[in-house]
Design goal:
Strand content of chain B: under 5%
Largest sheet of chain A: 2 strands, antiparallel
Number of strands of chain A: 2
Order of helices and strands of chain B: HHEEHHHHHHEEHHHHHHHHHHHHH
Order of helices and strands of chain A: HHHEEHHHHHHHHHHHHHHHHH
Largest interface: A-B, 32 and 35 residues
Number of helices of chain B: 21
Number of domains of chain B: 2
Strand content of chain A: under 5%
Number of strands of chain B: 4
Distance between the termini of chain B: 46 Å
Oligomer: heterodimer
Largest sheet of chain B: 2 strands, antiparallel
């Protein structure tokens, strides 16, 4: 579609961009202590964006001369991104850490990041892939270092910059090898060109694949590209940690799915229910091994943490590993499983982080000891935290189980060559029980019982908590509508 | 009454919801609500038993409702002669458990809410016929159990609770893999009735990494269930959890939760993988034997009365396994000894039920003495018979029932198991009778040390067992005695179902050789 015609289908991104500009201008008129009001402008803009996605219809096409895809698949991810952005903005309103800063631009940057994530979820051209990743990365560097008076936050930002620059450099190198081999930047032309390459270029292809995997792996914090994650997650404002652990991961997975299945797949993606890797490039095996390593390392290191925030950081690495299990399957149900998992993960992980933010705000810390007796003192917060922990472990009847169930089902369905992966996966969920339940232990078993019962003082806190907790519970046994929504969203633009 | 089974499952949840509306300082009201709802559940279970058609070996009172059609997940309930005794047992012990817990004074609201949730989870497992539903109920039990042990338990409660949780979760995730493998290899369905038809043949000849698919799935499921039973060497969570749990929870653990494992093996492994039964029966009998001897030896070495009772569970569940293994006697190559298979399997199911009543009684009685003396050291008592004659009488009943004295129900089931298993597992049966001897030894020795001999001055004024406690023990003692003398009603109840089960296991016996 030509550039001018494309604009008509680019409404969500356009509205988001206008929202950001409006927010930045609005910020100029607020005094420092009122700067949080920018959030309300943004929330309005995000609502409009969501609305424009929903009325956009289910057009399946490419925009801007084949650099961006519009399809139900990207709409699905855009909705997830909008949802998590909205929730993180709401969560930020109650964050104590951010109180001493002017937060106007914090919110604007968050929205720019959402814009970048939108592009990530729909890019079908390697240049657009790179631009999208860079928009998101640079915005996350800002946000990670937003607490400028806190040394850890500065450290987080700097580490993030160095790792980010390095990994995108390597990825760029991989992409340029790919360009050199194929002479095009567009996914589908690349796919066709690679399919006709002779065996003498297979080493270059493998190299390019590995390099590109470094870039993507960094974005979804897969082992061994995860080293930035714990420090960045710990040092950043907790709201940003929550955001980084959900939204960029979702977009990163969208990108991974598109890239690996459409560029390095045999071209039958989504036209048949399973497909094959192109030219025998061993990327499925590579990703399967990375998935196993990611969840195992994430879980084993999470056990040793003394800070709940850091524990959640490592556990989010493990969650990326669970989702990665479904990537090498190259089946529709694998993609379905990832989408299901991400939906469930959004609620439970944001929920867990929100409770950490809340506890940080009331008791001043985020170590396990700060949770002692929380369940008795604040039954609501303790109760929903228990729910989030149980869900993150993947026990029924919670959303977390359904996510894992779909992933494991996809892995088992793929046949006996992947059973080992399913086995590693389930053993890992048992390991994760140990550290998730430790939070519950501190909330109920270790702490003193208190006679007085407290509710969070702010209504907004209660509403957001319930908004996260209710789906976490209800989707555990009534996920039919979500399942249908994902089935409808399983339409990926495939170049036709 | 329509949806009878749903009512039985969900009544405790209704109770839980009602409790949520009671202020937390009104502990009497909370206890009464729990009693009313589990009482109603017990009445429904008795009613179910009365209208159940015992001559029919198939599932009855089926319920079916759409749930998640896109994944072929359905809400299916049904009851047969195998699950009915377990449903009754759970309802009875759930009801009695409320009264056993009457002394709980810490966080009463939380305790009874979790207690009722546990009840729903267990009932759900026994009654669901959709694998997805089965798995959900199976896991729903874990969290309440964790809290009940971890919050209201003894000094080592946190360790015991997490150990229990991790062990059983490990078992159930293996089960999840097996369930999914069955789903995808046997026609994309979780409907256990359909799987019982398709699974025995669908997996034939399928190889995974050179191993027969049937064996792989069998082992995955078996480990999942064996951890619950618990079968040696997966039993180490049990003594700890039993000892640390509050009395009522030990009662439920030993009385019902252990049965879930055996029930699962019979319902899933036996019905869906009959070929595997033939492959594994020998191992099952040997594992049963190890349980019998190991459990008895460990029990003999204990000085803590509750630990002794806990190990006696390991010992008693061992007999069940031996009885279950006897089912292969009915196959062609083993001489079509149907009587032997019926006796063995019938004995195993009967033993499950009997262990439920007897171990519940034992744990309640341990709780009674612990509440008074605040310790459970067997050697720390002595001469209690003169101070607490009624209590002594009930302990005597429980101990004698536990050691399998004729006249008590335990004798009948153990005898049936031995009769059934003898024709095929002669060595195992002969050695396991040694277990009976050890069994008698540890019970009688403990009894002697506690109740006879010179009276311990410290417990001169120890109060006699009270009416509430008697109320919890008497029904169990009566059932044990009646079934010991007249086991017919129980055996008739399960016979038709077990015949169907034996028939379905044996009809695939010929395939076993080809495996």
């Amino acid at each position: 579609m030509s550039n001018l015609n494309s604009l008509a289908h680019f409404w969500p991104e356009l509205i988001l961009a206008v929202t950001v500009i409006v927010a930045i201008i609005a910020d100029l008129f607020y005094r420092r202590e009122d700067s949080y009001k920018v959030a309300w402008w943004l929330l309005g803009g995000l609502a409009l964006t969501l609305f424009s996605i929903r009325i956009g219809g289910s057009l399946v096409s490419s925009l801007f001369m084949g650099t961006i895809a519009v399809d139900p698949f990207s709409e699905f991810f855009k909705v997830l991104i909008l949802l998590s952005t909205t929730l993180v903005i709401l969560m930020s309103l109650n964050s104590k850490e951010l109180k001493e800063y002017r937060v106007g631009e914090y919110f604007s940057i968050l929205a720019i990041m959402a814009f970048g994530l939108f592009l990530m979820a729909s890019a079908i051209d390697i240049l657009m892939v790179y631009i999208a990743i860079e928009i998101v990365s640079i915005m996350s560097f800002f946000l990670a270092g937003y607490l400028k008076k806190k040394p850890e936050s500065n450290e987080a930002s700097l580490k993030y910059v160095i790792y980010g620059a390095f990994s995108s450099g390597i990825m760029l190198y991989g992409l340029s090898i790919l360009f050199g081999l194929t002479g095009t930047t567009k996914f589908f032309e690349m796919q066709a060109a690679i399919a006709s390459l002779g065996p003498d270029s297979s080493l270059a292809l493998l190299l390019a694949t590995v390099f590109i995997l470094v870039g993507f792996g960094y974005k979804i914090s897969a082992v061994p590209f995860h080293f930035w994650t714990p420090d960045v997650y710990e040092g950043s404002p907790t709201t940003i940690t929550a955001y980084l652990s959900v939204a960029p991961k979702a977009a990163g997975f969208a990108m991974l799915i598109r890239f690996f299945n459409q560029v390095l797949g045999d071209g039958s993606v989504m036209t048949s229910s399973t497909w094959l890797a192109l030219n025998g490039i061993p990327w499925p095996q590579l990703i399967a091994v990375l998935a196993a390593a990611t969840m195992t390392v994430g879980n084993l290191v999470a056990i040793q943490q003394n800070s709940v925030k850091r524990m959640l950081a490592y556990s989010s690495i493990a969650h990326a590993g669970y989702m990665m299990m479904a990537l090498p399957l190259m089946s529709e149900s694998g993609i379905y499983g990832i989408m299901m998992y991400l939906t469930m993960y959004l609620f439970m992980n944001l929920g867990a982080f929100y409770v950490v933010i809340y506890v940080e705000g009331t008791s001043g810390g985020e170590s396990f000891e700060d949770f002692n007796g929380l369940g008795w003192k604040m039954p609501l917060v303790g109760g929903v935290m228990t729910l989030f922990m149980v869900a993150l472990t993947g026990l029924p009847p919670t959303a977390g189980f359904i996510g894992k169930f779909y992933i494991f089902a996809a892995v088992i369905e793929a046949g006996s060559q992947y059973y080992w992966l399913a086995f590693v996966g389930v053993v890992n969920s048992v390991i994760s029980l140990y550290y998730y339940i430790r939070v519950v232990k501190h909330m109920y078993l270790t702490g003193e019982r208190s006679e007085s019962v407290e509710l969070p003082s702010s209504k907004l806190v209660i509403i957001v908590l319930l908004f996260l907790a209710i789906p976490t519970f209800v989707f555990g046994w009534y996920f039919g509508p979500v399942a249908n929504w994902i089935s409808e969203s399983l339409v990926i633009f495939n170049g036709m | 009454m329509n949806h009878l089974l749903s009512w039985i499952i969900w009544l405790p949840i209704l109770g839980m919801v009602s409790i949520a509306f009671v202020p937390r300082d009104k502990s009497e009201v909370i206890k009464k609500i729990a009693a009313v709802f589990s009482g109603l559940q017990l009445l429904l279970a008795i009613y179910l038993w009365r209208i159940f058609d015992a001559s029919n070996g198939t599932f009855q009172f089926m319920e079916r409702a759409e749930w998640i059609p896109s994944f072929n997940i359905t809400y299916i309930l049904g009851v047969d002669g195998l699950s009915l005794p377990m449903v009754f047992l759970m309802a009875l012990i759930g009801f009695i458990g409320v009264f056993v817990s009457w002394n709980i004074d810490k966080a009463v609201k939380g305790y009874f809410s979790l207690f009722l949730l546990l009840n729903t989870g267990v009932m759900g497992v026994f009654l669901s016929l959709d694998f997805f539903l089965f798995y959900i109920f199976w896991e729903v039990m874990l969290l309440p159990m964790y809290f009940l042990i971890g919050m209201w338990g003894g000094p080592q409660r946190e360790y015991a609770a997490i150990k229990f949780f991790i062990y059983t979760l490990f078992g159930s995730v293996l089960m999840l893999i097996a369930i999914l493998a069955l789903y995808f290899t046997c026609g994309n369905t979780f409907d256990m009735l359909v799987l019982m038809d398709t699974a025995p043949t669908a997996l034939n000849g399928m190889l995974w990494w050179g191993m027969s698919a049937i064996k792989v799935i069998w082992v995955l499921l078996f480990i999942g269930f064996a951890i619950k039973v618990p079968v040696f060497p997966f039993h180490t969570w049990l003594p700890l959890a039993h000892v640390e749990a509050p009395t009522a929870i030990s009662v439920i653990l030993a009385g019902v939760l252990l049965k879930l494992g055996v029930y699962g093996i019979l319902r899933v492994n036996y019905n869906m993988l009959p070929d595997g039964v033939f492959w594994f029966a020998g191992a099952l009998a040997v594992l049963g034997l190890i349980n019998v001897i190991w459990g008895a030896m460990c029990a003999l070495a204990q000085t803590d009365l509750k630990k002794l009772v806990a190990y006696s569970s390991v010992n008693h569940m061992g007999y069940t396994l031996i009885g279950m293994a006897a089912v292969i006697a009915a196959s062609e190559m083993n001489g079509e000894n149907l009587i032997s298979a019926q006796a063995g399997l019938g004995g195993a199911v009967f033993q499950m039920f009997n262990h439920g009543t007897i171990s519940a009684m034992l744990f309640i009685l341990v709780g009674v003495i612990y509440d008074r003396a605040h310790h459970r050291d067997i050697d720390g008592f002595g001469g209690l018979a003169s101070q607490m004659p009624i209590y002594t009488a009930f302990v005597a009943i429980a101990f004698f029932a536990g050691l399998g004295l004729p006249g008590f129900s335990g004798f009948v089931s153990e005898a049936m198991i031995f009769i059934g298993a003898f024709p095929i597992f002669k060595t195992v049966v002969i050695i396991s009778t040694l277990g009976i001897l050890l069994n008698a030894a540890y019970f009688l020795w403990a009894f002697q040390r506690m109740f006879f001999g010179p009276a311990n001055e410290k417990y001169k004024d120890i109060p006699e067992i009270n009416k509430r406690e008697l109320f919890t023990v008497i029904p169990l003692a009566v059932i044990t005695l009646i079934l010991g003398v007249y086991p017919r009603p129980f055996l008739d109840l399960i016979a038709a179902t077990l015949n169907v089960l034996i028939e379905s296991v044996v009809s695939f016996g010929g395939l076993a050789a080809a495996m």
